[in-house]
Amino acid sequence: MAIVQMKKLRLLAVRDSKEELLKELALRGCVEFSETESALEGSEEASLVHRESSELSSLKTRHASLTHAVSLLDQYAPKKTKFLSAKPELENRVLLDDTGLAGALRTAETIEGYDARIKRIGAEESRLRSVIESLQPWLSLDLPLNFEGTGRTSALMGSIPSRFPMETVSAAIEAVDEESEIFTIHEEKKSRYVLLVCMREALPAMQDALRPFGFAPSALSGMNGTARECKLNAEQSLKELAAEKENCARYIVDDAVHRDELKLAADRVSVKIAMAEAEEKLCGTDSVLVMEGWIPADREQDLAQVFERFGCAWETLDPTEEELASVPVKLKNNKFTNSMNMVTNMYSLPAYGTVDPNPLMAPFFILFYGLMMADMGYGFLMIVAALVAMKKLKPRGGTLAFCQLLLYGGISTFIMGALTGGLFGDAPRVIAGMFGSDWPGLPHLFSPVEDSEKVLYGAMALGVIHLNFGMAVNFSQRWKHGDRIGAILEEGAQWVILAGGLIFAAQMFLFKDNGTLKNVALGVMGLGVAMLLIGAIRSASGIGKLTAPFSCIYSTLTGWFGDVLSYSRIMALMLAGGVVAQVFNTIAAMPSEKGVTPVSGIIFIVVFLIGHALNFALNLLGCFVHDLRLQCLEFFGKFYHDGGKPFEPLRIRTQYINPQE
User: Fold this and answer.
1) By CB distance 3.0 to 4.6 Å, which of 70, 225, 267, 297 could disulfide with 229?
2) Contact call for residues 567 and 463 (beta carbons, < 8 A)
3) 3-class secondary structure for 130-197?
4) How many beta carbons lie within 10 A of that of residue 38, not counting itself?
5) What is the pairing mode between strands 283-284 and 50-51?
6) Mean pLDDT across the stretch 411-415?
7) Could you give the CA distance from residue 555 to residue 553 in angstroms, rounded to a whole number?
């Protein structure tokens, strides 16, 4: 597969056809609009046109209201759905219809109103509970809480920390005015609630006398009636609020019959938002619209029919060299390479005009994943999970790519498990041993435990192949774009060095003490090093020509050593997963060493399931992360040019409903 060729679109359309034209383009989903004003700057027409306006802000507010109403219905009236159920599907043109939108917005407003009232009731309930709690110390007091004294006396309620003895407080008061008296109403561990009665003219002096004891006036003075009466009133208010709150929640539940209408309306507004965002990138006069953007070259004929139907004037152009950085990137994938979109999107899209990494990466990614996991049982679980999810969920986009990657990774894992004889580790051998058999286990071509050294060499050999394949891609790209000398002096030089190394290894292990072959190997490697140094000096400038040979040799040696060694993680993960699985199998079988009993059988099943669930989950993530590292760092580092801007056309985007394909 490859990066889809893009063409720049310039279009003039009649203003009256704007809405219908945008709808047609949204249905086809193949036009990405770009800012038009910049294209008109400096031209005579620039003063005649103006930027288009839209209801984008209002539409976003409506969409937020509708989605909030749906979430409220899910909160107050949860809907039971089937496990792994797919979203409902509707025709695209239904999603462009406004029918029922006004009614759905009114329903959403009603639901939000009830929810807002419930929140206000909750705040009021919290306040009343705080009031009841603050009234507790004063329940034994028969005086109204707003009582401030008589004509000649003053009454003051408050609290004093319990660490001050009451005798000391009373003595301080009597020292100021013998006719004053302080009463303890309620006492707790940290506070003492008191009532001070004194002559009215002595109140300021009493407050000064109480200040050293940490006296704090009560905040309940504004309440009418006694504390007991106030508590009863607050409790009655709580009952009334609870009833109102229950009614509001019931009204929301009653509106749950409109859930699907709200979802449809939310998706319809989503389409309107996409059209409004595109509309704001347009310019025009009172009668004509000016549009500019990008379209896939293979959709030009399809769009030509649309433009002709609406009486548009239009042209398409190939992007210039200056525009390449702004050209959006769309990858053309089949069912196999589409699974790699998840990996590429996590890293970065390729720059326009470079190579699509998905078909190059897919075989290696899936092979490496299978080698790291290498267990028929785990592979079978991955295959089943992927097939069930694809059938039930009918996924699209990134979810579909994930399911496909899970499926292909499961197939690879199953095949590699068959080669290594792994079925939930060594479960068949352990189970046979529980019943007294000395069966050695499933046949295998190689074992990560017994042949770890061979697996390590094989992993690094795969790494060499993988890296050289990336270099071959880069070599072909440089050759295609005219940098043939650079390709020969860099990638070509490294291949010459590699060929000399292979000849040298052959004379060491196959043709021992063959001096002629050794000299040939050294000569070939020397030629490769000379080519590499010439390439480094050629690409450097100024003083860099003196340092380039040293940095080139150092970076090449350390880079290749580190890159190839990095592929040892394939062996490490294969070994780790297999050993952990064997450990869990051994632990599960321990109670059955003297014979299988019902109890030991149950213990085996429980430990087996828990252990392999943990190992499977750990390997599922670990193998993906390490495989991703091999692709994005080692492999991409040889040829990949990232920084591509994703192609984001005007199209129907939905949250709750899938448009029919």
Assistant:
1) 225
2) yes
3) HHHHHHHHHCCCCCCCCCCCCCCEEEEEEEEECCCCHHHHHHHHHHHCCCCEEEEEEECCCEEEEEEE
4) 9
5) antiparallel
6) 96
7) 6
**pLDDT over threshold 80, residue 659:** yes
- The confidence score (pLDDT) of residue 37 equals 58
573-601 in b/e form (b: 16+ CB < 10 A) is bbbbbbebbbebbeebbebbeeebeeebe
Rg from Cα positions in the chain: 39
Query: Would you say 339 and 405 are in contact if contact means Cβ atoms under 8 Å apart?
Result: yes
Can you tell me the distance from the alpha carbon of 325 to that of 349, in angstroms, rounded to the nearest whole number?
Answer: 12
DSSP 426-469: BHHHHHHHHTT-----S--S--TTTTHHHHHHHHHHHHHHHHHH
Which pair of structure tokens corresponds to residue 144? 């109204």
Amino acid, single-letter form, for residue 20: E
Phi/psi at 652 (5° precision) = -85, 110
Give the per-residue pLDDT at 558.
80
Q: What CA–CA distance (Å, rounded) separates 629 from 563?
A: 11
* Nearest Cα to Cα of residue 608 among 588, 590, 581, 593: 588
- Binning the chain into helix, strand and coil, the percentages to the nearest 5 are 65, 10, 25
| CA within 13 Å, CB half, 174 | 6
CB atoms near residue 49 (< 10 Å): 19
Q: Residue 368 corresponds to which tokens in the numbers above?
A: 């490496």
Question: Structure tokens of 271?
Answer: 């389409």
- Please say whether the beta carbons of 70 and 48 come within 8 A: no
CA gap 12, 191 in Å, rounded? 81
C-beta of residue 134 within 8 angstroms of C-beta of residue 219: yes
Give the integer Cα–Cα distance in Å for 78 and 524: 73
Per residue in 508-537, is it b (16+ CB within 10 Å) or e — as a string? eeeeeeeeebbeebeebbeebbebbbbbbb
Q: Which residues contact 219 (CB under 8 A, 6 or more apart)?
A: 134
Question: What's the CA gap between 369 and 412, in Å, rounded?
Answer: 7
pLDDT at 525 over 90: no
Q: Is 290 helix (H, G, I), strand (E, B) or coil?
A: strand
Q: What is the pTM of this model?
A: 0.83
At residue 322, the pLDDT reads 87
Contacts of 430 (CB under 8 A, 6+ apart): 585, 586, 588, 589
**pLDDT score recorded for residue 363:** 94
DSSP state of 86: P
DSSP state of 423: B
What are the angstrom distances between the C-alpha of 434 and each of 569, 588, 600, 607? 34, 10, 10, 15
Closest to 270 in 3D by CA, of 113, 398, 397, 92: 92
How far is Cα 365 from Cα 358, in angstroms, rounded to an integer?
A: 10
Tokens of 320: 């210039």
Place of tokens 């507010």: 61
Residue type, 514: N
